[in-house]
UniProtKB/TrEMBL annotation:
<dbReference type="InterPro" id="IPR050469">
    <property type="entry name" value="Diguanylate_Cyclase"/>
</dbReference>
<dbReference type="GO" id="GO:0043709">
    <property type="term" value="P:cell adhesion involved in single-species biofilm formation"/>
</dbReference>
<dbReference type="GO" id="GO:0005886">
    <property type="term" value="C:plasma membrane"/>
</dbReference>
<dbReference type="GO" id="GO:0052621">
    <property type="term" value="F:diguanylate cyclase activity"/>
</dbReference>
<dbReference type="Pfam" id="PF13185">
    <property type="entry name" value="GAF_2"/>
</dbReference>
<dbReference type="Pfam" id="PF00990">
    <property type="entry name" value="GGDEF"/>
</dbReference>
<dbReference type="GO" id="GO:1902201">
    <property type="term" value="P:negative regulation of bacterial-type flagellum-dependent cell motility"/>
</dbReference>
<dbReference type="InterPro" id="IPR003018">
    <property type="entry name" value="GAF"/>
</dbReference>
<protein>
    <recommendedName>
        <fullName>GGDEF domain-containing protein</fullName>
    </recommendedName>
</protein>
<dbReference type="InterPro" id="IPR043128">
    <property type="entry name" value="Rev_trsase/Diguanyl_cyclase"/>
</dbReference>
<dbReference type="InterPro" id="IPR029787">
    <property type="entry name" value="Nucleotide_cyclase"/>
</dbReference>
<dbReference type="InterPro" id="IPR029016">
    <property type="entry name" value="GAF-like_dom_sf"/>
</dbReference>
<feature type="domain" description="GGDEF">
    <location>
        <begin position="297"/>
        <end position="425"/>
    </location>
</feature>
<dbReference type="InterPro" id="IPR000160">
    <property type="entry name" value="GGDEF_dom"/>
</dbReference>
Amino acid sequence: MIQQDDPEAACARVLDWLRELGAEQVTLVAHPAGPADGLLLPLAGRYRARQALHLCPAPDWTAGQRAAAEDAARHLALVLERVAAERRLDTLLHLQRQLDSVPAEELYQPLLDAAVQLVPGAQGGSLLVRGGDSFRFGAVVGYDFEPLRPVTFPWQETRDIWYGLGDAAWRRGVPRVLSRSVVLQDGAGYHRDQQWVDSVLPEVQRLQCVVAVPVLFGDEVYALINLDSFTDPDAFDADAVHVTQAFGSMASLLIHEAQRHAQVQTTARTDALTGLGNRRAFNECLEQAVRLSRSGAPLSLLVLDLQGFKGVNDRLGHATGDQALRQVAGLLVGLVRGQDRLFRWGGDEFAVLLSGTDARGAWLVGQRITRAMGSVQVQGLPLRATIGAATLRPGGTAEALLHEADQAMYAAKARGESLATADEFPG
């Protein structure tokens, strides 16, 4: 009676057939929370019914007619389950294409949104991200995020008590379904603003059922997705658990790819010897900083050339020269603010990008560096710095700022000084 490849036609044919049997009004309703009057035909195929056909008023059928109607509903349910599975797969593939190469932090909310949409019975949820010895909220659906931002959970208690299926299942990403009583018992205990609270979160009180699935990165659990039902204590059946596990596996792949992409990007922009940004990173950051500074915030640049480095290389060897460069890099890191950016952009050349720093501030930073460099020696050989400083002019470009700082450095060299500014030598 039902064409398995056409869900809309299958549904229409079942409804028409039921009306031919005497059903006056047939509607599709949620199950088990459907209307109390009339007759409900649950749409249960391989899994529990989440929808039903509501016949009102209840038809006066024989036992045989009712059995035939129930059989038709079961076949329709199998068709709808197949269609739902295909749609989930399409959604997962679309999500994978959409989120490919997105930074991990930007994955959390769309991943959780998709999980709540795809997993049968899910009405809300949270994605917990591990950092060190604790989990924090990375995304939520159905909750206000702000009160949860300062909340963390000890990772070991999260694994052993909240998840509770053992380390082997934890590392395989096996989902666990938690009933309301288990949620209220095993969900107690968290930190808020680093203060321990020995109770459940207020948001947990309304949960009827939860399915939790670990998200892996390599052989470690990177995150934990909790999907929640607020109304149905039996929301997560075998179908929901199967979908949850498949989604957890896909989330693991996406996060792994995001981390790998980030690592490649970081490596491509990092000087392997010193750990500072390289020339590519410098060019990108300079362009970005110039764009941001057009709002009115000052921007300054220091370019630094080492004096005496060639002698270190020639007399003591390249290995010692490399160590000297690492020593200078470490010194510079300790002399600038956290918001400032450091780069090694040539053999013995460094650059310091000073966001929010005007010309006088740049001069003071340059003086601080030259004073600190005054005491640097490499096996008795002195190592000094010549610095050129420049501040972005109104309407200025990244190229112009770099040129002015470079010219100031060469002017300082020509005068035998350690520091000069572009304002002295406009170009």
